[in-house]
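I am writing to request your help with a piece of structural work I have in hand. Thank you for your consideration; the sequence and its tokens are set out here:
=====
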Amino acid sequence: MSNDNEKKTTAARRLLQPADWAAPRGYANGVAASGTQVFVAGQIGWNGQCQFESDDFVDQVRQALINIKAVLAEAGAEPRHIARMTWYLVDKREYVARGREVGQAYREVLGSEYGIAMTAVQVAGLIEDRAKVEIEVTAVVPPRD
């Protein structure tokens, strides 16, 4: 494991990075964690009343992340406890083209923790026609001492 990953290792969470692999940018190749698992269903860019406030991609990303943070809080979890994140995108080109804005929205809502095993896939569509992104997470809350 590299020194950078050793800095981010805690007793309940460890980043998995083969020594001879290039370091990933903006995510982790793997995470080992122990504690209470929290599974957050796919969240889309609508508010708590299931209403879209915007059709803009980045606005929907921000709202989906806000929704994730709210569900995590119900379990006593925080963004720092996220171990896995899967993004379902209707348009991967928009995701790539607006990556800087997506990163800014991510940092505004979840902070600068990128030690998360992430996957992003383009899909033909989402159940809600106006949705441009759906994000699901798995978090692990470490045992209390």
Observations:
- The first helix runs from residue 3 to 7.
- Residues 28 and 115 are 5 Å apart (CA to CA).
